[in-house]
Amino acid sequence: MRVVGILVKDVNELVQTVFSGLAPLVIEDVADEGERIVVRARTPQDTADCPVCGASSGRVHGYHWRTAADVPVDDRRVVVRVRVRRLVCPTRGCRQTFREQVPEVLERYQRRTARLTRQVKAVVKELAGRAGARLLVMLAVGLSRHTALRTLLRIPLPTGRMPRVIGVDDFALRRRHRYATVIIDAETHERIDVLPDRTADTLEAWLREHPGIEAVCRDGSATYAEAIRRALPDAVQIGDRWHLWKNLCEAALSEVKAHSSCWAAVLDAPIYDGPRAQTTLERWHQVHGLLDQGVGLLECARRLQLALNTVKRYARAEKPERMLRVPKYRASLVDPYREHLRKRRAEDPGVPVLHLFEEIKILGFTGCLNLLHKYINQGRADADRSHISPRRLARMLLTRPGNLKAEQHELLAKLTGACPEMTQLAVGIRDFAPLLAPHADNADALTRWIAQIRASDLPHLHAFTQGLDRDIDAVIAGLTLPYSNGPTEGVNTKTKRIARQMHGRAGFTLLRHRILLG
Q1: By C-alpha distance, which of 464, 490, 468, 470 is closest to 479?
Q2: Domain ranges (residues) in the chain
């Protein structure tokens, strides 16, 4: 017969091929008992070392049977029954007898062979308790979820060298309630440790216990910055470039919203002038009236019963028109029939909406009459072209120019030329983007960019530059050094997958173990 391409001459050779993982043992018999296969074996007649004194002995005191599970064969469990010897220690004063062990096959106190244990560990490392136990049952390895978790926690954690550059970031154990800190090697991306919270004292204590760290990649967290300053005053703190770009994106979106009245006029898009707009204008005058009297922002918030951040947003707007917004319209079922509606209303301004509804229904419209009424009352059928949302305009401003279509380039040029501030915003974004590629000259370029922005009338970007000034050393290091906190964010993404996989039932010890196992 032929098994896996190997010519087998007799049954003994077949047994040795199938159970090659039991090679240190002498197989005497293989019995088929239906639901399981029983392999009877013994240890070879070699000397063994005493586990206490290390003396070799071959003198047999007695025999003992050990039973262990092995890797399944043909979807059936395999049970190995091994006769091991109890030997007499030749050293006077040492223990009288000891039982010989079979390295790489049967470990002390284990009920599974070493190769089956390796397979179980590989499964529970990926799937943990319940899911791992269910998969192992399908693979003919009977295991409870508790045993799976105990096996997982017995996997030794990797112990590598202390890195020179680390990445630090937090992740949620329970969103808005409990957070933890993950630390990785920023050069090799290996997990180093997981701390039970994100306080400065905890991180400071860990840093003091692990000397030799020269640089730390982090986000804009002031807590982590303080811990690093206290524990490693000479270490370089590296700001994360992704967070810098994200903060710029948020500031750019706020500027685009503030100039809605400028670029909306280019598109002939309507500005919302309903009751909410009137309330917005009244509040702007109230806030600026108090500020002109010398009242502080916090006192304005108290008198007007508004949130402090809301008062700051009104204070940044130099003109009341900058608080008005383009109406937020979502995609509608009527949009495909907009041109037909425009043409019919131009031909007959008094055409009833019900007639229009019947016409577009014949063309394939599947919505209701109320939806058409709302669409027409909002003026969406009469404008020369559909408006563009502030978020979509900001996305075009922040997109790499090579990724925009020709019509998007034309529209963007038209909108950014609506007012000097929009032109300055487009230039500022275009000049900042190259700084995200680390280079030694980026420090001077950043200083020039900040001066350029402060000379423009862009209050939201002014707030962004103030944030850069508060952490300028870390920002410059992030723009000039090749290290990034991106790998740490990647670990956090995988951590979320692990947490979802365990449905939030895992304690910190188990979660930390799985994170560090990678």
Answers
A1: 468
A2: 19-111, 168-240+484-517, 264-377, 389-480
